[in-house]
Amino acid sequence: MWSGPPQPDQGLPPPLAAVPVPWKSTDPCQGHRESPGALVETAAGEEAQGQEGPTAAQLDVLRLRSSSMEIREKGSEFLKEELHRAQKELKLKDEECERLSKVREQLEQELEELTASLFEEAHKMVREANMKQAASEKQLREARGKIDMLQAEVTALKTLVITSTPASPNRELHPQLLSPTKAGPRKGHSRHKSTSSTLCPAVCPAAGHTLTPDREGKEVDTILFAEFQAWRESPTLDKTCPFLERVYREDVGPCLDFTMQELSALVRAAVEDNTLTIEPVASQTLPAVKVAEVDCSSTNTCALSGLTRTCRHRIRLGDSKSHYYISPSSRARITAVCNFFTYIRYIQQGLVRQDAEPMFWEIMRLRKEMSLAKLGFFPQEA
């Protein structure tokens, strides 16, 4: 069905003139017949159509080309805008990356500085802590030395008080109580200096006094003095050094070698550790009328020698609550060794400020007391 000619605004050529078409027979028995006029009109119409066809096709091609050019131009402009926009974004991202890189470098630098300052502060704190610890340890050593000295003085005072009481005064400590024949020279005569050596061995070293030697010849043994000087350069309580090794072998060991070997070893260890306590038997706490009636078998047998002796003192090892009763001879042997260790501890702690020779002779005197105590010589108690 034909809908009519195209509108002029669509750009198409004007419509061709209507060409009348003759009726054609469709009968197969009749041939194809057309009139001469129809043929002429048909040829003229075809000729006119052939002349107008190329012009319309050219217009269509030109129109298509112009449209394609416009599309290309618009596409090119769009791509340029997109490229420009992408470049701007890349530039902004580069700037952001550069800024973040600078921030990272700054943070890394600050972190390194902070780490260095923390390490420096930590080293400073450790150094101060070490210095404080060293000062505290030094103060502790000094305090322990003072405590040892005070304990020795207290022990000496106890011994002095115990050995001289109103009920039984020590006549050696109080010459005025001696008989006229034993009191020594009267006014105008000098007292014999050897009487001071009869005092308790624990009194003089603890008080820091040097006993006046008896009138006897003395000569320094060069070997012993050399060993003492070597030890005095760096005082120590290590028994492996030549000086103390000799004293242990010749004096300390034999002096503390009792019959009861097991208890002897414990006593020796307590003396070396300065944890041995000698206490008097508290018999004075009982009424005076009943003192003679007190008969305790444990106070009549020495725990170290095993001999039956009147035990006026007892020992306690460390913090133990057990006590062992000892005889006067055993007490003298233990006291002699304790006096020696107390003196060398004073030397080690720097409390004895004397020349080498007086210190050497004091040590020889203490060794002499250990030897005498080992042989059974000890001051008699009143």
Quick recap:
This protein is mainly alpha-helical and 382 residues long. It contains seven helices and three strands. Helix 4 (242-255) packs parallel to helix 7.
Q: Overview of this structure, please?
A:
The model is unreliable at 1-6, 8-12, 14-34, 164-168, 173-214 and 284-297 (pLDDT under 50). The chain contains seven helices and three strands. It has helices spanning 36-162, 203-207, 222-233, 242-255, 261-273, 328-348, 356-374, and strands at residues 276-280, 313-317, 324-326. With 382 residues, the chain is mainly alpha-helical. The chain has a domain at 135-172 and 201-374. Strands 1-2-3 form a three-stranded antiparallel β-sheet.
**What is the residue-mean pLDDT, rounded to a whole number?**
75
Counting DSSP E segments of at least 2 residues, the number of strands comes to 3
Structural class: mainly alpha
Taking pLDDT < 50 over at least 5 consecutive residues as the criterion, the unreliable ranges are 1-6, 8-12, 14-34, 164-168, 173-214, 284-297
* N→C terminal distance: 165 Å
Q: Return Rg in Å.
A: 64 Å
Question: How is the main sheet built?
Answer: 3 strands, antiparallel
